[in-house]
Design goal:
mainly alpha; two-stranded antiparallel ribbon; 11 helices
Amino acid sequence: MVQKLLSENPIDPKLSRYCGSAVLDAMADASTWADDVRNDKKNRPWHFIDIPRGAKRGPLETYCAEDGCVTRAIAEQLAILKDKNADGAKRTEALRYIIHFVGDLHQPLHAITNADEGGNCVPLKYLRRKPREHNHSFSPNLHSLWDTAIPERDMEGADPGEYADTLAEMFAADIEGWRKAGIHLDDWAWESHDLAESTAYGALTPKIAIEPNVTVKSCTDDNNVGERLLQQHITAGESYQEQAARVVERRLAQAGLRLAMILNEVAKAAL
């Protein structure tokens, strides 16, 4: 079903792609499409859900923005994908969104905020890299570490296929339990939130205080939160990398298994 939709409704070759032509697998190629089009589609809020640090577990609609959030986006796109009478191009767009958003939902910093744009406004020293400011944004920052730097270092030069095989072997004993737990988007979001609190923020040196829950659209908001955090000289060293990598490995494995579960359910419904 996945291969048929993707092959019959290809991505516009004129679209500027994040990975260029480096990815040959159709499903992997589809996985970055939602980032490639989010500025044109003006649906950036679909990629995350801003659950404030310190929030108590409960219904997520409280934290879903007016323009949407990742859990709502997955549910809405699932309804389109399951509709076998829907336009093929629309179903394929929905498929690409779901592939991407299930990944986003399992990245801990896509389910938390500390008035810092999900960690994008947290400058830090990562191993030997010192934080630098450019146009009111910072590199490295906490969010980018979890998006790319931590998993890439953990891969130790392996290509994605080899790394995926390694993760499948590491978590072989857990897969049946994850499958039996079923499909629960809210639970997965709270898992990410709790891991962001305990590890993404919790393992930093020094600890970052919980900020007032205010809307932030730039690192200069919330009394210049980015500059204030830069002055705290936050570090993420080898110990942080080791703790974070263990979380990243599990979340990648869970996201892959859970995406498979969702697509299998869709395939049954679309028969």
